[in-house]
Amino acid sequence: MSRLRVAIAGAGIGRQHAAAFAKLPERFDVVALCDPDVERRRAVAAEFSIRGTTSSFEDLLANDAVDVVDICTPQSLHFGQAMAALAAGRHVICEKPVVGSLADCDALMAAERASQRRVMPVFQYRFGVGLQKLLHLVERGVTGKHFLSTAETTWRRGPAYFATAWRGNLAQAMGGCLLTQAIHAHDALTITLGDVRKVYAATATRVNPVQTEDCAAATLTFADGSLATLAVTLGSADDTSRLRFHFEQLTAQSSLAPYTMTAEPWTWIPANDAAASRIADALADFRPRAEGFAGQFERFHDALTNGGAMPVTLADARTSLELLTALYHSAATGSAVELPIAAMHPAYRGWS
Ligand SMILES: NC(=O)c1ccc[n+]([C@@H]2O[C@H](COP(=O)([O-])OP(=O)(O)OC[C@H]3O[C@@H](n4cnc5c(N)ncnc54)[C@H](O)[C@@H]3O)[C@@H](O)[C@H]2O)c1
Predict the structure, then answer these.
(1) CA of 180 to the centre of ligand 1 (A)
(2) Please, which residues bridge with residue 152 across strands?
(3) 73 CB under 6 A from ligand 1?
(4) Tens digit of pLDDT for each residue in 243-287?
(5) pTM for the whole structure
């Protein structure tokens, strides 16, 4: 099996990426780590025996012994760093949100097409076995018509979290709890339920003295006319996530584990005995695979080495960004927003 040589930029969540690569030693070798914060860089390099360290992203790109640049820096840096990494001939893994507008996403997609290299956005929650089972059932048509689903991301973030300068700063964070915390739950809804056609949202900043929203409520209307509600706050007394899907033949509820709600245990409530039997039959050929960051990186390696489909694409990130654009525009204007969002839409180049 060919080993991909990885350079990680950013040693915050980048530490968890390093831990995931370390679980896949036949597939990945992390050869370099970049972070201007010398203490963080040294600590993560020592923990995972990463040989090459630097404070400069440009040094990382100049390193010919790198196949994949894994961007784990604050979000306002992602677009420039991803474009530069592609231009340097590297594959790119990039943390969410990949960029801060549909226009930047389209530019990055064009650069990827021209480059012969691949860009994989990170949406590691997608690979939780509970959510994968639900997708398996939806694909096999046993869930029936979708009625309504709910996504709750109710976490607690206070002064310690916002002590990091870029967080809560609109120019650098590009958004608040919708963009940073709830993006995974909302991605889980849209990959399961399909295209969103209309959004109505309200946001508020009530928990912390920051520029970005820390509470949000929204309704979504999907292409088939079914509905979802989103509820997000950073002022919960504990960290809880919950996805609850209501289909004609099945109600499915995620676990409440805040950062692994897509993993099992899920609660499965078939509408009747016949539905229970069809669901059990459909799950007979379900095979669980690795979850989280390691699950996504393992699939990334498979796609690059076998030429298959990427587990997450820039088109997926674009769907997420289009929903965010609609949510923020709706909250700013107090009106419903219809999707898709065209290039002449006032929020196509950014929502803030
Ligand atoms: N997928 C997830 O579940 C998840 C979880 C947390 C954060 N994130 C995302 O990961 C990104 C980083 O978030 P974080 O919480 O780790 O932030 P952080 O501020 O804790 O860490 C970012 C690190 O990047 C470093 N950095 C800054 N400029 C750099 C540069 N030019 N080159 C290299 N390193 C640089 C900083 O010094 C810092 O150590 C954000 O986009 C965030 O939204 C994703």
Answers:
(1) 11
(2) 231, 242
(3) yes
(4) 999 999 999 999 999 999 999 999 999 999 999 999 999 999 999
(5) 0.98
